[in-house]
Amino acid sequence: MQTDEKQSTRLSTARSRELGEELRRVRHRAGMSSGLVTEALGWSLGKLSKLETGTRGTSPWEIGTLLGRCGADKATRERIMAIANEPDTGSFLRRHATAADDLLAVALHEGVARAIATYEPITVPSLAQTEDYARALTGDHDLAGARVARQENLNRADGPDTVVYVHEIALRLVVGDVGVMRDQVLHLTALCGRPRYGPRVIPMTAAAHAALRHPATVLTFNAPFKPLVYTETDAATVFHDDPTTVTVYQAKMRRLHRLALDAERSRDLLARWAEVYDRETR
């Protein structure tokens, strides 16, 4: 059997950090201190700390023991044990309860990212949607609120440098009504004035390219964390931190950057669309 020392030193992965955060939340919900848990299990404080931060592994049996000691319910145990038993291949899938907004892996990694680049083909990306736009798009009041709450991380003084690629198709496509669109485009226009968070518009005149077909978000972190990509489908979100796969999406974002207008011209185009919708609401 491996000793703590042999298991303790490793680079964390997106999956191991998600698992660690799940375990930390279980312990906190149980109202149990680190000292109480480690004493009960015969672990060192360092072992538990590294497990909860994703920088060490342990056996599924020990994770099950930890969950039992913390009194986790059946659904929580099954969800966490499924993660614990997954092979760490550099890619993993998480099914939605409603959308990607409710996934721990999304919230956890957006919260510690140094930079974010995101794109959705025919709608305004989730990280720049207003609550009214999100509600009209999804038909879900709670989801719309969660989506806006997700954006609070981007507004922190130490928040990530964020680029939101918006295709002009998304500005033409009326979601909700013209009033919703006016407010959404005004919101995007206002974001252009922020130093670390702004949209770049891909105009209708841009050349067609395969990079425009599918959504993606690329997260970059401070060392030693590797970059992470996630792509959302209707039913699940797929995460990649395998370097070869990540390179494909980094190239996609570079292509989108070349197709997009610069910051000043993006702001001008957004302002023109805001005027269009403002006239239609009068």
From TrEMBL:
Domain DUF5753, residue spans: 107-272
Domain of life from the UniProt record: Bacteria
Transmembrane segments: none
Single GO MF annotation: DNA binding
Residue stretches in coiled coil: none
Region (Disordered): 1-21
Matching Gene3D superfamilies: lambda repressor-like DNA-binding domains (1.10.260.40)
Pfam families reported in the protein's UniProt record: DUF5753 (PF19054), HTH_31 (PF13560)
Protein name as it appears in the record: XRE family transcriptional regulator
Lineage per the UniProt record: Bacteria, Bacillati, Actinomycetota, Actinomycetes, Pseudonocardiales
